[in-house]
Write a structure and sequence with these properties.
The complex is a heterodimer of chains A (228) and B (296). In chain A, 32% of the residues lie in helices and 26% in strands. With 228 residues, chain A is an alpha/beta fold. Chain B has two domains: 2-57 and 163-294, no CATH class; 62-155, Alpha-Beta Plaits (2-Layer Sandwich). Chain B has ten helices and four strands, in the order ααβαβααβαβαααα. In chain B, α2 (23-59) packs across α10. Chain B starts with a helix and ends with a helix. The chains are: A alpha/beta (228), B alpha+beta (296).
Chain lengths: 228, 296
């Protein structure tokens, strides 16, 4: 599903974020990206939804070359990718319901369809009863659930998450992981960058360890693999 | 088609919602456009009047050509033809000697002068010559002087140059005022648009993230810019129109010698252009400022 070939990313200031990375991720996989801060995890994530382009190398997704992709094709790529952030990135002046519905409205989904899908994903993340709340009225975990609901509302085949539990306490983090686990079981590929050692070790999923922009370990059912 | 209608519906709803939710920001935009347009419109009327004043002064520049006394009437007519054919001459007016005498009599309030002079008319036949370009008064006058049958040529030799200097200065000041205020208006409005967009960059960021196409992101902002421009422009022409009307009436009442632009059609055109311009600035400003946000 995703194929990175000899990908390097050097920022204009000369910082080498990624060095010659090759990585293949299959459909339906759950992949953790681990490594110290600044190792290049976030850069790798941003390459996947084409927020950034690599300096060298190829990124192929579902048979499409992201580097050669024209600017006006990017929106269509993104409709098939859900993105989750550490800081949730909800719109503060919109309710939980509106935050999710907004993501569907702006890609031209019809009114009835928007209502139906929004209700469904809010139920799926267990927050149907808080749809009228504004983000500041929700806990961190609840806000992240809304973030996830928004990310999966369009039923994407890939979900990328950059430290989705980074701002949450451990109990709440586990609730979020359970949700992601269930989403993955329904067939959605998940790539998640994280620092949460305990989560990685217990989930028993594929773990790709990045250090100084290079993949130094790639374990099929791995444990948290650096600094140990 | 269904999709396009859905999009249109979304866009219109979004414009309405956005103006309501960002009421104070929208009000600030309307006021910014209004103030800018009042300043700009005011300066355009200043320019129009400065130009009219300059043209008025310049139209006073004319050349008086006196024919030699011994010419027959057909020779005088032929002279007129030759003057008319000279380069730089816009129009000529024939003042026969009888008319000159009558006019002189009338101006001196001396109606019996014709009889008193015993049938002798000391006035020569005269042509009043208007030039195309006031700067060419002198060269045209010299050219006329060389024609046969011309006795004397008179024009305001000493006032031509200072007058032209003054009218050029008047136009220059008028134009500078317009350019200056147009630039100030643009800066004001674009700053306002940037503030608007900046306060909503999160919204734009998320729209991009979930795969909204650029046109989908752009249209609500452009329409919003146009709407706010329209409202601001309408208020502005109201202010400028009434203000100018008041000012023009007062000037005409007190400074009667001042020419004032009161061509209703021209004023209407200026005011109409102001509304169109403020709509265009609103739309173009949103479009240009958005480009920075839409770049990946």
């Amino acid at each position: 599903m995703i194929q990175l070939t000899n990908v390097s990313k050097i920022y204009p200031n000369g910082a080498k974020a990624l060095v010659d990375i090759s990585l293949k991720i299959d459909k339906g996989e759950f992949v953790f990206l681990v490594g110290p801060s600044g190792a290049g995890k976030s850069t790798l994530i941003r390459l996947l939804y084409r927020e950034e382009l690599p300096t060298r190398g190829q990124v192929i997704m579902n048979g499409k070359n992201l580097i050669r992709m024209r600017q006006r094709e990017v929106p269509h790529l993104r409709r098939n990718i859900g993105v989750i952030f550490q800081d949730f990135r909800l719109l503060p002046n919109k309710t939980a319901y509106e935050n999710v519905a907004f993501a569907l409205e702006v890609i031209g989904v019809g009114n009835r369809e928007v209502k139906m899908r929004t209700k469904r994903v809010l139920e799926l993340v267990g927050l149907a009863h808080k749809e009228k709340c504004f983000p500041h009225e929700l806990s961190g975990g609840e806000q992240q659930r809304i973030g996830i609901a928004r990310a999966i509302a369009n039923n994407p085949s890939l979900l990328v998450a950059d430290e989705p539990t980074g701002n949450l306490d451990s109990d709440t983090a586990w609730e979020i992981m359970e949700l992601l686990y269930n989403i993955n079981r329904r067939g959605t590929t998940i790539v998640m960058a994280t620092h949460a050692r305990e989560i990685v070790e217990q989930m028993q999923k594929r773990v790709v360890t990045i250090e100084e922009g290079r993949v130094i370990r790639d374990l099929k059912q791995g444990a948290y693999g650096y600094g140990a | 088609m269904g999709m396009a209608l859905k999009s249109l519906e979304y866009i219109l709803r979004e414009v309405g919602k956005s103006i309501r939710r960002n009421f104070w920001l929208s009000l600030a935009s309307v006021l910014t456009v209004m103030v800018s347009m009042v300043i700009l419109g005011g300066s355009v009327f200043f320019l129009l009047n400065a130009t009219k004043l300059a043209a008025d002064f310049e139209s006073e520049l004319e050349i008086a050509v006196f024919a030699q006394e011994d010419l027959s009437s057909s020779e005088v007519q032929a002279l007129g033809e030759r003057i008319k054919n000279l380069a730089g001459v816009a129009d000529i007016e024939f003042v026969p000697k009888d008319q000159a005498l009558r006019e002189f009599a009338a101006s001196m309030n001396y109606s019996s002068i014709v009889e008193d002079l015993g049938g002798i008319n000391p006035f020569p036949d005269k042509y009043t010559v208007f030039v195309v370009d006031p700067k060419e008064v002198e060269s045209v006058a010299l050219a006329i002087e060389k024609l046969s049958g011309v006795d004397k040529v008179a024009y305001g030799k000493n006032i031509v140059e200072p007058l032209l200097k003054f009218t050029n200065w008047l136009r220059w000041v008028g134009t500078s005022v317009v350019v200056l205020f147009a630039a100030a208006s643009l800066i004001l409005i674009s700053l306002n648009i940037k503030t608007n967009l900046f306060s909503r960059r999160k919204e734009i960021e998320i729209m991009k993230l979930v795969g909204a196409s650029n046109s989908f992101i752009r249209w609500p902002f452009i329409l919003e810019g146009m709407t706010l421009g329209l409202v601001g422009g309408l208020v502005a022409i109201f202010v400028v129109g009434l203000g100018y009307n008041w000012l023009a009436e007062n000037i005409q009442a007190t400074l009667t010698f001042m020419p004032v632009v009161n061509d209703v059609k021209l004023i209407g055109q200026v005011l109409g252009s102001m509304v169109l311009l403020s709509m265009a600035i609103g739309a173009a400003g949103s479009f240009i400022s958005l480009r920075r946000f839409l770049k990946v």
